[in-house]
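Progress against Task 2.4 (sequence-to-structure conversion) is shown through the following example record, which the project officer requested during the mid-term review.
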Amino acid sequence: QLQLVESGGGLVQPGGSLRLSCAASGFRFNDYAIVWFRQVPGKEREGISCVSTSGGRTNYADSVNGRFTISRDNAKNTAYLQMNNLKPEDTAVYYCAADLAVADICVMVLRHPGERFWGQGTQVTVSS
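Structure tokens generated for the chain above:
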């Protein structure tokens, strides 16, 4: 059965770093763009970064641009989100989504028009 599992969250101090992983199984990972979202209680889920199927194209929300780096290793069926210079406002549950792609591009849309798989989320807390 298909699986999309986030890991790597935890508690870090402001200015610290974390690397999140999104491990996929049960589907053709190479055919799916990966989008990272985050959500805090009472607010809509927010797209923060995405990477195209080949890894050749990436996009970032203004709130994380320059601090976060998205990547993928198709041989390992895993995508990553390297988070540096973390701020308290980065505190959220982080989710990855796999979006079936028709081209080597990605978009950070909450509602994907095609097939999408969601992970279960991992908590990131940035606090001193």
